[in-house]
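Morning F.,

Quick status update on the modeling queue. The single chain you submitted on Monday has been processed. Sequence for confirmation:
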Amino acid sequence: PHVPLIAVAECYRSTRQVAFVRALVHQGDKSNPVASAQGTFMRLEE
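Structure tokens below.
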């Protein structure tokens, strides 16, 4: 069945140059995630 996916992401640490992000994906029940992700992102000065 087609059940919507809900992703919740947070930036759990940020420095002047790098942001650390993690995410969980669920289908309506937050206690039963179906996927997870994490990443680091370089912050650019403008």
